[in-house]
């Protein structure tokens, strides 16, 4: 049941970031002072939106321990690699957006690590 409270906001965040990058990719990369590449921005946006949809449709599944392990490991890998990358980028280019993203990714990496090792609680739908 706790997985629902972790996966739901994460899926909303991924969908919002994906849609934002799809429609305002140039503006976001300019504000973050990142190099612009249209195809890379579109691919990243579509991946984030798709991953957000997978999470949204999995929010009511039993997740934790061995249940839903591929979903949890995929989310954990994304958050862990993202948090390390954003922290590294924040040292080179300390903009507020990069620091906020580093914090968000780090929190979700910790939450998905926790979710991977706890046994699932019954889902009372």
TrEMBL record:
Transmembrane segments: 7-24, 39-58, 70-91, 97-117
Keywords on record: Membrane, Transmembrane, Transmembrane helix
Domain of life: Bacteria
Protein name: Uncharacterized protein
The species this protein was found in: Fulvivirga lutea
Lineage: Bacteria, Pseudomonadati, Bacteroidota, Cytophagia, Cytophagales
């Amino acid at each position: 049941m706790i997985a629902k409270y972790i996966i739901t906001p994460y899926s909303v965040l991924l969908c919002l970031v994906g849609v934002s990058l799809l429609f305002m990719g140039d503006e976001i990369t300019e504000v973050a002072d990142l190099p612009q590449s249209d195809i890379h921005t579109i691919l990243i946006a579509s991946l984030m939106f798709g991953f957000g949809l997978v999470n949204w449709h999995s929010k009511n599944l039993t997740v934790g321990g061995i249940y839903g392990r591929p979903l949890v490991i995929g989310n954990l890998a994304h958050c862990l690699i993202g948090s390390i990358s954003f922290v590294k980028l924040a040292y080179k280019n300390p903009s507020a957006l990069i620091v906020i993203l580093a914090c968000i990714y780090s929190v979700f990496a910790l939450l998905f690590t926790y979710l991977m090792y706890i046994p699932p609680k019954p889902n009372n739908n």
